[in-house]
Amino acid sequence: MSLPRTLGELRTSPFTEQRLQSRSVKDELRENLAARLRACPDEAIFPGIVGYEDTVVPQIVNAILSRHNFILLGLRGQAKSRILRALTALLDPFMPYLAGCEIHDNPYAPICRRCREEVARLGDESPIAYLAPDERYVEKLATPDVTIADLIGDIDPIKAARGGHELSSEFTVHYGLLPRANRGIFAINELPDLAGKIQVGLFNIMQEGDVQIKGYPIRLPLDVALVFSANPEDYTARGKIITPLKDRIGSEIRTHYPATVEEGIAITSQEAWTHRNASAMHLPNYVQEVIERIAFAAREDKKIDKRSGVSQRLPISAMENVISNAERRAIRNDEKLVVPRISDVYAALPAITGKLELEYEGEMKGADHVGRELIRTAIAKTYDQYFTGANMNQVIQWFDLGGEIQLSDSISATDALNNLTEIQGLLDKLGPLQISRNGGAEQQVSAAEFILEGLHAHKRIGRSEERVFKAGEKKQEPREREKGFDPEERPYRQKRQFN
Fold first, then answer.
1. Residue 494 is assigned to a structural domain of this protein
2. What is the DSSP letter of 224?
3. I need a labelling partner for 350 at 20 to 30 A (CA). Which of 175, 234, 422, 483 fits?
């Protein structure tokens, strides 16, 4: 379908004057959302957003149907910006405006001086251009140095000099981001970082629907849907949303982290760069679960600041590092199949520690120590999902009898498998992981190492920093665990007790 290119052609098209004048952006969002809900009630409103189907999304739908300006309030890494950008899917495929207009004026009711004069001069020959949905979304990251001129506009002396206009003329206006978002969506990320006196500049557009530009006795009745995002921590750490502005925001919607490990795995699988063309790859389920449980364990750990949160970017970055370490091992050993191991998770510590804000106790222990504890906790919980009630006595006994084995993260699958076959009964325990004795060496080694790491996480066998698995420490009697007790003194202490 060819689109009208002049105002005259537009008058005889489906873009009727009544429709364009009476239908605001919020009406457009509301009508398109209602049509989608009516036609496909089971279809996701925001494709790619996982875990919000029964919590956040219904509240956003209600806000749009209510024609509200709204704010998404949540910790870092909770898909706030992605949701705001996804709102463009609810806009019309094309929106006509007067060509060359900086604020995308309605052809039937222009509000800027230039467009009014052009329509009066050219009439039905006024040229028409169109905006796609993505072009109708304007986003601004709030920072303390943002000014009213950035958001609303100001006098432009250069325009006045070049055009020979008086400074009081509307032709010398330099429009800010908000007027340029006219007939679209304007988003401000991290709203509390915006200085309070700048937040005041949003009052008029939210309540009266217009803005006042500095130095001009004019008001522009803009048509804008305003949406915001904020982190609750920002209220005390860097700034706050002033009360009058909060009062003008129609809906405050709280976001959250994934409620289940399965939801977290779905998000990480969607966002992480896992599909690489260099070589074939098999990503075991238990490795994905361990990586995801690290984030869950971190969100519950007292050594980590809960107010700051643990972003979903942690498992995403960790997953990419884990695969890269496995890929590096496969390249060095000329292996055709890349299979991540638990040792690769420990190698991904740099992708974990930088995303943790530690409390005092955590700072004292150090980020690396806290990260290793989180990995160990995640391994233990994942191990329990597969091997609760499994009899591992034969494996443990092999170590108790003096057996040791070293599994570095760089050893080839063939060499590692030759070493693992010495452990009696270990390779027979791979069934719950859906790995058989006839499977490839890479998969068998990964699964067997997971079992050993699980036993180590439960303190049933030991492991050194050089990744040497060995017998665990023997449990001491209660008196032996007393502080400062020397085992050499035990006979004397027993004798003294009976005397």
1. no
2. E
3. 234
Q: Which whole number is the average pLDDT over 131-147?
A: 92
User: Which pTM value belongs to this model?
Assistant: 0.86
- pLDDT tens, residue by residue, 369-404: 999 999 999 999 999 999 988 999 999 999 999 999
Domain with 35 in it: 7-254
Q: Are residues 299 and 213 both part of a single domain?
A: no
Phi, psi at residue 11, to the nearest 5°?
-65, -25
Q: Is residue 492 part of a domain?
A: no
Q: Which two tokens stand for residue 102?
A: 């900086």
Query: What is the CB neighbour count within 10 angstroms for residue 105?
Result: 22
Distance of CA 158 to the CA centre of its chain: 42
**Under a CB-based contact definition with an 8 Å cutoff, are residues 222 and 104 in contact?**
no
The helix/strand/coil state of 276 is coil
**Would you call 46 helix, strand, or coil by DSSP?**
coil
324 and 365 fall within a common domain? yes
Distance CA 250, CA 70 (A): 5
With respect to residue 1, please indicate whether it lies within any of the assigned structural domains: no
Cβ 146 vs Cβ 88: under 8 Å: no
**Cβ–Cβ under 8 Å, residues 392 and 456:** no
Distance CA 94, CA 5 (A): 13
Residues 6+ apart with CB under 8 A from 367: 353, 354, 356, 358
CB-based contact 59:68 (threshold 8 Å): no
Q: Is residue 109 included in any domain, yes or no?
A: yes
Structural element, H or E, at residue 230: strand 224-230
Same domain, 245 and 267: no
Instruction: Decide which of 230, 254, 278 is a domain's last residue.
Output: 254
The CA distance from 380 to 261, in Å, is 15
The residue out of 200, 219, 254 marking a domain boundary is: 254
- Cβ distance 383 to 450 under 8 Å? yes
Residue 306: pLDDT over 60:
yes
